[in-house]
Write a structure and sequence with these properties.
Length: 407
């Protein structure tokens, strides 16, 4: 009697040595299956690392019909991840995913594992179903289920594949390089279209929110602080934190055109500072946070790290520091002191609450008439900000910042 286990979105499973097969089944929609071989930087090593119907075999990964097979013992040392992708057949007009396809993962002598992502509602044409990735001397698989509305060409470009055929590129009419604001001011997003087409729609939504609040054309250095408290583990594993970071990066594309956001992980240890960029954002938070120990979020130390970086950068534009918080800080007095002492530095602090912890400290920062902070605000983005529609999310993110900028 065969045994089958089901994976949840974001869940990992250990694989045994040998070949592993990923079979995609979809109802009511013709689907193409493909795979990308990625190096440690999350990019393909070359254009041949895209395995699809026109190139069904490369470096231990092969495609047969709706099945991708990876021979783990034949994958080159330079391959850190294999991404399995399902895309709607481009020959079917208006074809989009509504019901997620079924992914079956099989290995000889091992139970079959299945994964069905949550259904899609935003006209998605491409879905990243799973990641096969190295962990130590072995391999693991992660159920992903991440939709990709910009199409296979956008996904391939994000992962570093050079798409030469103009017929496969999004047209200028369907993916404009500029987001026109209601005031008639254009925000140039050509860099986003070129380097991260998957972020083009959220970047346009962010630009619209900035225009609505009177900040079209204004500049600011955007920082991101992420809570790495132990109770956030589930939200990292389910890609909620990755999705949140991508939305902040899309906002930054409208405020700071260098395409880079410094990221600071707040944990019980010394804050860990790195960056997320338009050209490396896919899976970046997952890659970085595994280098940080879990602990109680040290918000004050993370804030000090952001202040130091901002001052050392010599930036003349104000700083917009987005701090994701999942629970009360243990260093409340230090946090209050830092907020008070940075009021004159041109730094705005937005605490964004999501997770399962208590957030009363952040909610009540400006509740007392005798101790208010004009450069501080709180935005509650629910337990999972990915469920908040784009324009609603960005309006909540920038409203208080806009009032401060215009004061």
């Amino acid at each position: 009697m065969s045994v089958t286990t089901s994976l949840l979105k974001g869940q990992n499973a250990v694989l045994s040595a040998g070949p592993v097969s990923f079979t995609v089944s979809a109802s009511g929609l013709a689907v193409d299956v493909s795979a990308l071989l990625l190096g440690p930087d999350g990019k393909v090593r070359g254009d041949d690392d895209l395995v699809f119907y026109n190139q069904p075999k490369h470096d231990g990964v092969s495609l047969s019909g709706q099945t991708v097979t990876a021979d783990l013992q034949r994958l080159p040392a330079g391959v850190a991840t294999v991404v399995v992708v399902a895309s709607a057949d481009p020959l079917q007009p208006e074809a989009v995913f509504t019901t997620a396809p079924l992914l079956s993962i099989t290995q000889p002598g091992a139970p079959t594992q299945t994964f069905v992502a949550p259904d899609f509602t935003a006209g998605e044409t491409v879905v990243v179903l799973a990641e096969l990735y190295r962990r130590g001397d072995g391999w693991k698989v992660r159920a992903v289920g991440q939709d990709y509305a910009s199409g296979l060409a956008g996904l391939a470009t994000d992962y570093g594949v050079d798409i030469d055929d103009p017929g496969t590129e999004p047209s200028a009419a369907s993916v404009p390089a500029q987001a026109q604001s209601t005031a008639g001011t254009a925000v140039d997003l050509s860099k986003v279209q070129r380097q991260a087409p998957g972020l083009l729609e959220p970047a346009r939504q962010a630009g619209h929110a900035l225009t609505q609040t009177g900040l079209a054309g204004r500049r600011a250095a955007v920082y991101l602080v992420l809570d790495h408290d132990w109770h956030m583990k589930e939200l990292y594993e389910s890609f909620a934190v990755q999705a949140f970071a991508e939305r902040v990066l899309a906002l930054s594309a409208n405020l700071d055109d260098d395409g880079t956001v410094p990221v600071i992980f707040s944990s019980g240890q010394e804050p860990f500072l790195e960056e997320i960029r338009l050209d490396n954002y896919r899976g970046r938070i997952e890659q970085l946070h595994t280098q940080v120990d879990w602990g109680w979020g040290n918000v004050a130390d993370a804030m000090r790290r952001a202040v130091s970086h901002y001052q050392e950068s010599g930036a003349s534009d104000p700083a917009f520091v987005v701090i994701q918080v999942g629970d009360e800080p243990w260093d409340k007095a230090e946090a209050r002191s830092l907020l008070q002492n940075t009021a004159a530095l041109g730094m705005f602090w937005l605490f964004v609450g999501f997770g399962r912890g208590k957030l009363a400290f952040y909610k009540n920062l400006n509740a007392s008439a005798s101790a208010t902070f004009n450069n501080v605000a709180f935005y509650e983005a629910s337990k999972n900000p990915g469920a908040v529609p784009g324009e609603q999310f960005y309006n909540g993110l920038v409203q208080a910042f806009a009032s401060w900028m215009k004061a």
